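Why do we care about 3D structure at all? Because function follows from shape, and shape follows, mostly, from sequence. That is the central idea of this module. The next example makes it concrete: a single protein chain, its amino acid sequence, and then its structure expressed as tokens.
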Amino acid sequence: MTDFTKILPSLSNAAWLNEPRLQEVMGVINQAGGEVRVAGGAVRNSLLGVPISDVDLATTMLPHDVMRVCKAAGFGVHPTGIDHGTITVVNKGQPFEVTTLRLDVETDGRRAIVAFTDNWEADALRRDFTMNAMYCDAAGKIYDFTTGYFDIQRKRVRFVGNSEARIKEDYLRILRFFRFHAWYGKGSPCPVGLAASIKLKSGLKKISAERIRQELIKLIIAPRAVETLKVMATSGILKVILPYTEEWRVLARLPADAVLRLSVLAKKPAEMQTRLRLSNDEAFRIESLNVAPDISPKFRPAEQRVLLYQLGVETWCDAVQVAWAKSRAKLDDAKWKALLDLPNLWPVPKFPVTGKDLLAMSFPSGPGMGAALGELEDWWVASDFKPSRDELLKRIEDGK
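And the structure:
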């Protein structure tokens, strides 16, 4: 029988692992009698050869002991999730989440009651996917209790242990299954995981809108987002999350912008702020895009400038991207590129006259002033923004 541990590579030369601030935190915990390892995403991404954003640590040391030894070492310490065993340790401005090894004592499909353990395999077996259940120590040795390395080599997202059991612990794992497949998977989703997700899809109704949003936003910007969303649609899972269109071609042609893609994916975009708890900025972008006119390179330059002025740079660029994606033009079309680049070539001017200017000319305040400013701005826009401030004020003076 093959000794699986001999197949695992070493991360000893990984630059992120040898970063001094990380090594210092791991060294302090190890020297104080705990055992600490990098857990989950950083190990996974390092083996996949994709960028690493956060480095999370797991330890046999209890949370209050982690706080004590890290404070004594001069690190910043914050009990950000202490009820679930998580402490945020900050070393020279770099935060690290340090979580004590855990067992799930009780779950209800949304959250878990945990107990602490010093058993690494038990901690691995409570995690969601095999590729997320690996650890490495400060020297780069990998520990893999669920054959996650084989799944990484095959680019297969597979639940740890029984798929249905993992999902019932937290139904959000259905969305995470598709999100990780869209980012790291190859081919069709794992059939066992897919079958379990389809069977238990109604459990997503128990999950808060905020948690749904968090996963969906990450999913729809993934490299394989569109083909994954198609699988979710065919399997009946996507409709549990939101009413959707089947504008797959348009989605595939859009840049990896979550708000743009959501505005096309959602059948009722105006409802997304409430349904997914979007931020005000996200909701405003979608609302502005929905009322924007269709943009085309056939518009004359003066018409383009007027629309850019009226819409603003952000909505203009959003509207161009969506219109371009819906068109039959190639994605390197020079005319569409020029539309997208217009704000750089023609910085949107600011209307140079204000109410204070009119008051200084003894123009009476009130509704009439607002109407006069509006008419003046309309004339300025219709004149291709060319009249100067002095010319605008003279027009007011002549019309008094």
